[in-house]
């Protein structure tokens, strides 16, 4: 049995297929045999501007998504990051052993600066990986199931933990990232060279977990492919169709090779029709559950999660304060 921790930012009202297959799917398997903590990392969401009322809604919807996906609150701890003040306390301590030069290397920060210029980049965005390190180290998490884009943050977390341990004695567990082989990076439907993202302005770039059947059909129909009309998995030369094949394989659990064979005589149009149907079928039980979850259920889950997370976090921060001479 291992200690597992992960989290998703409530920065949009619904999640998409990339979140499901990159992160949540692993969580579902892990919850059976491990001690799991799944956070709604609401403080991280603040690194991009959020409208307060909408943020509150997003937080509720994210808990709903966790539950409707099949996370079992009897087995796992679901909690809100901002309700455990120890995350920000540990964050501060860790900022004092992290170099600014290390933060400047983070892709997420670099991308933003490249797009919008350094002048407007916020300190919160630069410090984002340190808060993530605090989330993980506070709970002695051994495994962190995430999408590929988070590996760099995990490496920094390990480096920070190593440094602290060296200076103040064994305190933190060095966490391992856990990344799916297929699904770690689901690409955008309108541009298969970039990852499917909820911050994308074009709603046709992603399939939200709550999208209605008609919308799913339209989105898949519009998805960018190539002019070859040949169904083959080749992410370099044929990124569009390869991404669709990956999604098909994930929702049907049919291996890529078998799909290639099945559709070798078929053109894109027919394949897309089948894919839309497969996604609709896959999402249907999720959507039914999603619509049945009540706000009292959500409150109960968060309140129980808060108590369990708090107990662990409090102990750990006391230990840290003692190690560094604040106690
Ligand atoms: P975020 O929306 O940045 O909080 O992401 C939450 C989790 O979903 C992280 O583990 C990400 O790596 C994962 N994720 C987000 N987008 C994708 C994607 N397009 N493909 C695979 N995983 C993703
Ligand atoms: N940074 C992660 C993302 O953008 C979200 C996150 C915050 C996280 N804290 C975490 C993921 C702790 C895993 C563990 O997706």
Task: Set out the fold topology.
Elements: E1 3-8, H1 17-30, E2 35-40, H2 42-45, H3 52-69, E3 76-80, H4 86-95, H5 100-104, H6 107-116, H7 123-137, E4 143-145, H8 151-168, E5 176-178, H9 213-222, H10 239-252, H11 256-262, H12 268-292, H13 295-324
Helix pairs in contact: 3-12, 4-7, 4-13, 7-8, 9-12, 10-12
Bound molecules: adenosine monophosphate and tryptophan (TRP).
Provide a brief overview of the structure.
This protein has 327 residues and is mainly α.
Would you write up a description of this structure?
Helix content is 55%, strand content 7%. It is mainly α and 327 residues long. The longest helix has 30 residues, at 295-324. The mean pLDDT is 96. α3 (52-69) crosses α12 (268-292), α4 crosses α7 and α10 (239-252) crosses α12 (268-292). It has a three-stranded parallel β-sheet with strand order 1-2-3. The chain contains 13 helices and five strands. It has two domains: 3-179 and 294-324, HUPs (Rossmann fold), CATH 3.40.50.620; 203-290, Tyrosyl-Transfer RNA Synthetase (Orthogonal Bundle), CATH 1.10.240.10. It has helices spanning 17-30, 42-45, 52-69, 86-95, 100-104, 107-116, 123-137, 151-168, 213-222, 239-252, 256-262, 268-292, 295-324, and strands spanning 3-8, 35-40, 76-80, 143-145, 176-178. Adenosine monophosphate binds next to α1.
